[in-house]
Amino acid sequence: MRNIYILLKLLTLIFIINKISLVYTKEALAELWDVEDSDLLHYLGIENNLVAVDTALRKVLRGFRSSFGGTYLDVKNNTVYCNTVDETKVPIVKSSPLLTQHGYVDFITFKPAPANNSVSTLRSRFKGLGQLIDVFTPNNIRVYIDHKLNDVVIRHDSKDDEENEDFLEHASEFNPTLIVPNVTHPHPRCNNSSQAPLSKRVIVDRILDGDGIINVDAGLKCSVGFWARHAENEDLNYLVTAGHCYNSSVGGSQEFFHLPWGSEDPGVELGSMEFSETIEEYDFGLIDITGKNVGQSAIINNIDSENFRKLHILEDSTMSTHGAHICKSGLTSHVTCGFVRGLNTITTSANGDILEDLIYYGKDTFQISCGGDSGGPVFSYLNDLSTVSLHGISISRFFDFSESLPLNIILGAAELEPVMPHQ
Known about the structure:
- This is Peptidase S1 domain-containing protein.
- The protein is 23% helix and 31% strand.
- The N and C termini lie far apart (69 Å).
């Protein structure tokens, strides 16, 4: 009997291991949409069309901000949902040439706004909460407009509620949706013991975006974001990563080395990072590689993929569509994807620092980012599974949300331009 019990336990363990192996050999985007890899191009085509529909619809809705409450797309249902407050305006919107000339109306579902909030109302309440944050400087708070919920949301960690009591009490007058997030599906690689190194030393001849880097002066591990040059002087070249990869308490010039996925030891010396205002104000930093060829590239690491191990950055763009897919590549959890949940956002850190307009994305209750992923590129797929558009870098996570600093903020603050293959 005891032998049968042991055999059953072994069979169960083998089944679990095989299931985990099966899940994590699928493309990250297939994981997000819960489809097979073979169906991805079909759904990418659907999403590209819906993004075009949503873009046109939002242009039309600019004149009806009191009548509608935001839009978001749903790839699996092949529709763009439009939260409707005043149904009498629907025929007017539907008749717009921007929507009729391309047949976009067929892909729009006008539905009653779940919370009956118009865009004007949402923006007013969001602005009010932002003013409260300036007054009370709460810790670990995420405030954003959630189009699917049709409401302003405050995500907060219950362990900080006592310290944030005054803010939460005054915030109630704006009637936000309060969410205490949780993770019921932790990412297996977030436990360091589950990521056994492939070898003691990995030989590489190219630095890929998403690869690991290590600050040898502070012992901090992060990820490569993207290769950029100064907009006014193309001889000045940098690798962009998260600002907190620089340790301000150590100070001075801090040296960074390449840390390939699956390696225990630092590889190529990349360059140094100096303290700058962008580290403190925006949480991004620049590793100076001017005059060096360290193998930098405009290619994102996706080595877990069977067929698309290198993702080529062909363009950069601003993410503006709620419900669209967005992905990141990083040292620890590699390539993972989520749905865009917030674009108008206010983020406060554990010490009360405030960042605005981060992109919130995720998959409910799933953990898609881990320590060490900070700085990695954030992107979306184009028309196939080997080319992507760059949107920014990963800088933080909050339970089942990952958070990206948009590319336009980085480029504007540091006067940079990303290096693309055609340049």
